[in-house]
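Read as amino acids, tokens; as here:

___
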Amino acid sequence: MDFPRALRACRSGRRLSRLVVEPATRAGTTRRHASFIESGRSVPGRTVVVRLAESLELSLRERNELLPAAGYAPAYPESSPDDPEPAPVRTALDHILRGHLPYPALVVERAGELTAANRAFDVITEGAAPDLAGTGKDVHRLALHPQGPVPRIGNLAECAQHILARLGHLPELRAELTAYVPELEPSTGHLGFAVPLLLHSSFSRLRLMTTVTAFATAVEVTLAELKPQALQPADRPPQEACRQPPHSGLPASGFPGERRRRRRAPAPVRSRPWLPHTRPPHPNGGAPGTPRLGNLP
């Protein structure tokens, strides 16, 4: 694909009718020059291509794919998925996963493959077929497969619609998962501002919201595509159920293998105001003639 066509494809993917307004301004070029580039009447330099890609908010992978179309080498390195993450990355991911206990957290790569998860993620995979759960498995397939947590999801229609709507870049997977989900009437299984996961487990009835993190300053393709995800309790009762499920037969922490941390409430700080008509001690230890403090309560 030549560069003008590739650029138009990127622009249309961002639902921009033309490349001559905001993207051109953010790329540091003129509207006229941007129009000439997209029509093929002007050949952009490497710096202009990178700036246009940044102005369109393309991912690092998409930028690397756009540069060769203009005749330039990719600008961002990419490691193999089999390569171990650098030590600082492993430390950061481990901190996120462990720090979110006793609630589930996981790390997903670009296509949805599970990279890592904490022990609390067992509440999601509880009862799922072994070939659906584990490192390297697709989390979208796990979520909507009949042998996954589907029988325990109380708002399946909302969750399925939410997941399928985000798989436009993976048409084959979307078609497969659509076949798994029956025709369901949407219920009130949402919060008005977000779609939670309404999950029935051996702990309790849980409502969990998902937050997604990213390495915002990553300049390496694989690292930029790692997405740590954390499931947060949506309301107080499920939050307490996660921490201490009643009569579940599981550890008191709320999730298998998690040790409960007990914290003592801080002692109240007693106010000790100065007594009336007194002053703090003199710096010299109380010179003659300086008033002394009364007895503190």
Summary: The mean pLDDT is 78. The longest helix spans residues 87-99.
